[in-house]
Amino acid sequence: xxxxxxxxxxxxxxxxxxxxxxxxxxxxxxxxxxxxxxxxxxxxxxxxxxxxxxxxxxxxxxxxxxxxxxxxxxxxxxxxxxxxxxxxxxxxxxxxxxxxxxxxxxxxxxxxxxxxxxxxxxxxxxxxxxxxxxxxxxxxxxxxxxxxxxxxxxxxxxxxxxxxxxxxxxxxxxxxxxxxxxxxxxxxxxxxxxxxxxxxxxxxxxxxxxxxxxxxxxxxxxxxxxxxxxxxxxxxxxxxxxxxxxxxxxxxxxxxxxx
Amino acid sequence: xxxxxxxxxxxxxxxxxxxxxxxxxxxxxxxxxxxxxxxxxxxxxxxxxxxxxxxxxxxxxxxxxxxxxxxxxxxxxxxxxxxxxxxxxxxxxxxxxxxxxxxxxxxxxxxxxxxxxxxxxxxxxxxxxxxxxxxxxxxxxxxxxxxxxxxxxxxxxxxxxxxxxxxxxxx
Lengths: 259, 171
Hints:
The structure holds 2 protein chains of 2 kinds. By secondary structure, chain A is α+β, with helices and mostly antiparallel strands. Chain A has helices spanning 3-12, 19-25, 29-49, 57-84, 87-121, 129-139, 152-160, 244-254, and strands at residues 164-166, 173-181, 184-193, 196-204, 216-218, 222-228, 232-239, 255-257. Chain A is flat and about 85 Å long. Chain A starts with a helix and ends with a strand. Chains A and B meet through helix 1, helix 3 and helix 4 of A and helix 1, helix 2, helix 4, helix 5 and helix 7 of B.
């Protein structure tokens, strides 16, 4: 074995240093130092590659697999049934479908009529801020259970698309998504505070305001406040008992508009 | 619960973490990695009856996962730009120094060419032997050993030049 072979073997497999290598390195402090260096490097590589695994991944994999399998079996059964049907029942099924189609058409036109009624009435049905905000929050209540930090630079990349920038928040951002707020695209984020997760909606305020009525609102679980800004309405919602005012002013001073 | 389910669930519990990490380092994207692992185990479930040799489980799963990853490039690329290149930092690292060090080394691992990175991942993350890596990657063992050597050698050099720069900057 020569020096090069020695180094190649250690670097290729630092965890399996055999007798040959040990004998070669014996009495040679430099070679021993090399072995130790590579082992230290390997420990670093190990820990760097050891990225955190998402919570409950195994349970989710198993659940999704069984769900997908069930879905596939159902589809297969349906297909088999269709294939097995004799010709006359297929004809009958078709005529039954034609009958159903009439109902379907009637139902569809009724649905269109109802939708038109609601769409044309939309401008007149303004919700209160609290109703609107809580409906949205409860719809995505799982957003409060996230703990993994989202990089502020990434938050700002998203926020910039509606012209805003966040300097910093009093805690790490753990949830971030664009949402539809009655037809307007706004940012929905959650950050961790000393008083639990807090929700922020930032909704551009052109055209239509975010709900009407009182700026402060609450229910038995959460309290919120809306800041009506020139560029956007900013809503902050926290658990009851949290110092909403001070977090609200921190939030407002963190938001800047780019243009 | 059927025998097949028991066998399957044991498999998921044993291998999901390693496979997730391997997938993460292949695609550098947490949600894509999750999808890859999910798809791998779904295919594994469907083909479980064909798996006879218990010792071959790991190479078998890895082969499925690598194929799934390759299919990702064949399909129209989805817009994953939003989360691309996010670097996951292990939150268990307590000191800032350790965290910074880890980010530096993660970046360097990310810079390795695929042909060097993949054998290294198989060895370090999956605990595969040289022979197993050769089988999974369809290479001969000497080539695998050379690539492992080059991968670590490049990391070693890159990290020591980073250290030199840091020392230079602090002077």
